[in-house]
């Protein structure tokens, strides 16, 4: 916070006022702490898979390579850890882009129906392999949202990845969308593990995970929802979650409707 006080000259007197500017350093300090915490998290997240890769490679070179079975298992582990690094770096690049002031999105009416259907189709394979039923409930006519099309796809892909990752076999994931006045509303609902109330506000923070081990196991980076929230805000919309442990979670995205009340595209 900045407080500025200006001493005005008396009527008829020349302007010789002084300006006193007081900066509230608590905000700056808070930002600096957040930045430090972020750098330390990134270092840790990068180091963990690298340490693992080195250890497997070293064990292989020290003789484990002789046994074909062990060799295969260790190489698979190395591949998994490399994949994790890849995902983490891709998420970090996405975040850095969102943070940079130069990133100006071309906001325009985007065919949400097409992207939602495409993302659902692309996730059907994983859903089947996990024995999860993935369905959509949607209006007959097309829905448009004000967004950037790649960014909108990132939002939907991330929410679907999570819904499938945190739902056990036999569960259900439902994607619903509809127009709601000047907004378009998208719900991604699952019958999964749920999120305890005290964690619900924090899952949108960078690297925040309810259960670190579980997130790692499903290949999570802890960055997905922070990217999703950032995108929703850049598009002038919002995201919220309601959830109950053991019964499931529902993520609701609200974005500006791309059509006016006559169904015509804006802009
Ligand atoms: P991650 O890569 O760990 O999934 P996210 O930022 O996407 O990171 O999500 C943060 C955390 O929020 C997850 O680690 C998980 O604990 C929780 N979470 C996200 N989506 C769901 C969901 N559909 N059901 C249960 N927990 C979820």
Q: How much helical structure, as a percent, in the residues?
A: 40-55%
Q: Classify the beta-strand content into a percent band.
A: 15-25%
Q: What is the average per-residue confidence, as pLDDT, rounded to a whole number?
A: 90
Weakly predicted, low-confidence segments: none
The assigned structural class equals alpha+beta
Main beta sheet: 5 strands, mixed
The radius of gyration is 24 Å
- Bound small molecules, deduplicated: adenosine-5'-diphosphate
Overall, the morphology is globular
Annotation field: number of helices: 7
Mind explaining what this structure looks like?
This protein is an alpha+beta fold. The chain has seven helices and nine strands; from the N terminus they run ββααβαββαββαααββ. The strands form three sheets. It has a five-stranded mixed beta sheet with strand order 4-6-7-9-8, with helices on one face. A two-stranded antiparallel sheet has the order 1-2. It is globular, with a radius of gyration of 24 Å. The model has no long low-confidence stretch (mean pLDDT 90). Adenosine-5'-diphosphate (ADP) binds next to helix 4 and helix 7. Residues 162-163, 166, 190, 192-193, 195, 203, 209-211, 215, 220-226, 249 line the site of adenosine-5'-diphosphate. It is found in: Cell membrane. Its main location: membrane. This is histidine kinase. Keywords: ATP-binding, Cell membrane, Coiled coil, Kinase, Membrane, Nucleotide-binding, Phosphoprotein, Transferase, Transmembrane, Transmembrane helix, Two-component regulatory system.
């Amino acid at each position: 916070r900045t407080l500025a006080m200006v001493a005005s000259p008396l009527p008829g007197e020349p302007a010789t006022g002084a300006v006193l500017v007081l900066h509230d350093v608590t905000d700056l300090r808070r930002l600096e702490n957040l930045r430090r915490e972020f750098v330390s998290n990134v270092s840790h997240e990068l180091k963990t898979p690298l340490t693992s890769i080195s250890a497997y490679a070293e064990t292989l070179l020290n003789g484990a390579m002789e046994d074909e079975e062990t060799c295969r298992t260790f190489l698979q582990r190395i591949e998994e850890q490399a994949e994790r690094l890849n995902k983490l770096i891709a998420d970090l690049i996405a975040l850095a882009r969102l943070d940079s002031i130069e990133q100006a999105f071309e906001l325009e009416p985007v065919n949400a129906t097409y992207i939602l259907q495409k993302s659902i189709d692309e996730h059907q394979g994983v859903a089947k392999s996990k024995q999860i039923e993935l369905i959509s409930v949607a209006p007959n006519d097309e829905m448009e949202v004000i967004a950037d099309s790649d960014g909108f796809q990132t939002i939907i892909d991330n929410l679907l990845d999570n819904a499938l990752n945190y739902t056990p076999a036999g569960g259900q994931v439902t994607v619903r969308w509809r127009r709601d006045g000047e907004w378009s509303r998208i719900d991604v609902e699952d019958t999964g593990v749920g999120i305890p109330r005290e964690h619900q506000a924090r899952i949108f923070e960078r690297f925040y995970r309810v259960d670190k081990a579980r997130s790692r196991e499903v290949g999570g980076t802890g960055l997905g929802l922070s990217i999703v929230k950032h995108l929703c805000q850049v598009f002038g919309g919002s995201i919220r979650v309601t959830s109950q442990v053991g019964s499931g979670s529902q993520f609701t995205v609200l974005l500006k409707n791309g059509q006016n009340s006559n169904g015509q595209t804006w802009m």
